[in-house]
Amino acid sequence: MNNRVLRLDTSNSDKTILHPDWVVGDDATRTDIFNSPHCIVFHSQTESLIVADRDNYRLVVLDAATGALKGHLHDWCPPPQPRPRACVLTATG
Questions:
Q1: C-alpha–C-alpha distance, residues 57 and 5, integer Å
Q2: β-pair partners for 15
């Protein structure tokens, strides 16, 4: 299994040979960086890639230009607000 995320350089005129700009992760021998990454989304406002890391049960945020780890999505989002335990309705609403 290939547990890598990479960005390919497509600037050359010959598109038959592509070279990576950067590579994050390793082969199947290491799963601490990525373990079955399977979906990548580009977030244009932050110039970030959000990678679904399936078997590590997390969403990883990478810098799109360099591949540097920016963190995990739970670091970027505020914690969910607690839901009310009960709802009381009155005659006035």
A1: 16
A2: none
Q: Are 40 and 51 in contact (CB under 8 A)?
A: yes
Domain of 66?
2-76
86 part of a folded domain: no
DSSP assignment of 10-48, as one string? --SS-TTS-EEEEEEEEETT--SS-SSEEEEEEETTTTE
The answer to whether residues 18 and 8 touch, using CB atoms and an 8 Å cutoff, is yes
Q: What is the pTM of this model?
A: 0.71
Q: Which of 68, 72, 67, 66 is nearest to 52 (CA)?
A: 72
State pLDDT tens for residues 48-63: 999 998 888 888 999 9
